[in-house]
Every structure is written in C-alpha cells, then in structure tokens.
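ok trying this again, last paste got cut off
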Amino acid sequence: MERKIKIGLIGLGTVGSGVFKTLKNFDNVEVVKIAVKNINKPRNIEGLDNSILTDNPYEIVENPEIDIVAELIGGIDPAFDLIKKAIENGKHIVTANKELLAKQGEELFNFAEQHNKVILYEAAIAGGIPLIMPVKTILAGNKINKIEAILNGTTNYILTKMDMQGASYDDVLKEAQELGYAESNPTGDVEGFDAAYKIATLATITFRKRIRIENIYREGITKIRPEDMKAANDLGYKIKLIASGKIDDEGNADVRVHPMLVSQKTALAHIDYVTNAVHLSGHPVGEVTLSGPGAGEFPTASSVVGDILNISAEIGKSDYILPMMRCRHDEYANMIDISETKNKYYLSINAHNNIGVIGKIGTICAENNISLASIVQKCVSDDNTADITVITEIASESAMQNAIKLIEQDGSKVNSLIRVQV
C-alpha cells in the first residue's frame, strides 16, 4: 500500500474545521497535527483526537513527518514566517490567505520555486468556486483581457438587502452583524480591502503580469444610499461592489474595486446575498461566468481539500510536481491610475429648485467634455430643493471630478457618484 500523505493544519476555525471534517473522508491522507490558539477550547468536531492539537505552529512547520501544510489563520504575521519555514523544511503549502498573497505573494512564490515546492491557493479568491485551477489549465490557451467579479459575500449581502428592503446601509449592516455575515469591525469588507486583495491575485494570474496591491483603486459601499438603489432600479441597473480588471495589448492594466451600476441584463446583476461570481472575457473562449458560494465552512474547505489532494496525488511521482500551477509571472503590469481612466457615471445631485438649474449642470458637463445620456429631476422637497439624477456617456475621470467641484461651487450638492458598467 502507498503511504498516507501527512497533513498539518495551522488553524481550526470555521475553515480549518471544515477541512478536517472533509479530509476524514479520504484514506490516502492523514491530519497528524493541528495548531490552534487555545488547546483547551471546547470543540464539537467528531473524530478529533485532542492529542494532535498544539498551540505552537512551529511544531507543524518543523515536523519532518509532515508533507503538506495548510495555513488557515489569515493575515501576515505569523503566517508569512510560518509558510517560509515550512517551505524551507521541504513542505508544500495550501493557503486561503488572500491578504498574504496580495502583499507578499511574489516573495513566497519565488521562495517556493527556489526550494522546488508548490503553493496552491484555490480558496483564497472565491471560496468554493473552482477558479485558479481552471484559469491555469483549461483556460491556459486564452488571452483573458477583462475581469468583472463579485468577490465579497458580506458587501453583496448588504447591497442585496438594501435593494430588496429599501433599507439604509447602517440598518442592514447591523442586521448582517447579528446574523454573522459581517464582522463586528466590518472595515475589511465594506471598505473594499478584502475584494482588493482577491482581485490583485486573480488579475496577476489571469493577465500573467504582476499587479501591485498598492496600485489598485479601492472604494467601499458605505456611501451607498437607499435612494441610489431605487434610482438604479428605475434606470435598469443594480448596484454591486465590483472588483474589475482590464489589460491592453501593451500591458497597461486598470485594476480596481468600487461600487458599480450593473445592467440588469447581465448575470452579475442577479448574483445576490453571499454568492460570489467571476466573469472573464478573452480570446478564443469569449465570455465565461463562474459563480457559487464565496465563503463558509464547507465551500472554502472544498477548495482547500482539492488543493491538498492535488498535491498528494503528485508526491513521489515526479521531482517537479504541478508545473502548470506554479507562478510564472516575472513582469509587472503598467498600472493605470483611476484619474487616467474613462467611465460612464451616475450622479445624484441635490440642487435648489431654481430656473435653469438643470441647464447649469448641463453646461458645466459640456464645458468638461462630458456628454449626458439622461438627466431627470425627481421631486421638489419642502426646502425647495430638487433631486436630480444624471447618467453620463463615457467621460474621463479627471473631467468628471472637475465637473463635480464646479457643480458644488454653484451651490448644489453631489450626494453620490457611482461608475456605470460599460
């Protein structure tokens, strides 16, 4: 009989528990050590032998018996040092750590290659959605030049509930926290950090050029109002937090995360609640959309376990395993700043209900080479102000920002600016 591949888990939280439970179904692998913060914490996990628990993760990365280390704790410290030590000691790595890959991925992948080890990370971008393996294998013959994705379940849940209920951001966030969909400190999700980490890695492997996380434009959902949701619906759109990327033939990349008005005719507009989705465009495949659960115990465990089993199947069969899954990105993309981009825009403006106010807005836009697709005055409030909704044609970001300044200098208030899917 072939020997069992020995696995060490660092972390036994939601994902780690799912991974342990799932691996029990396979006879060719064995979890021999699990690092946890508190050994004495009660854990209702069937089949867990407490003797394999340790509160010292270095017992795993320095254990010569272990073949594969699954890092499931997240963050930079101590995950970075633990992974490097594990590689140094001859172990392959599986991780779900999107922040670590976005910030330190280049160093870790280079270090792994120097030691002839692999790092797999299917769970780090879209939970249970098969994504990295298809991009690197089945779609390897394609030149993918555009990504549009919903990569954060928390923000998608909040925006869906705001849309369905007509509720405010603050009210829905509180409900999401009570249900466990949002953290007590939701900043990483609602300000777009989580989605930015994920699109950094996804764009790197898809465009085959390194994308620096610090060059990704990021904007969260905290300023989205119920009024914006209603206006979007009336105009045939839904508002989603979209992680997007485009690259041209010269290697110029526009990678960003921000709210977007997405046409109701597209699949992304109907990705609701905690579901994630990734839409890829390229040649020769055309367009492909992958969707499914982006987080959770077993969806994420599905991807982690898949990576573990892929590595396990290769150990002992080759001196250089899984060559297609290794990092091959040496060049950096030339990142385009958001100020240099062109977009369509939705504006919600509150203006005094004076004669000619719409004409003034139109004039300001025209003077900045911004053409208007539509402009609608909704209603007049008791304070004699009117809500005006504007959709522009494609215009430069710098011109749009200048127009907003001039509109507000004229006494109006721009409540919302949201870019529109093109």
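PB: full thing came through this time. The chain has three domains: 5-125+297-325, 132-293, 340-420.
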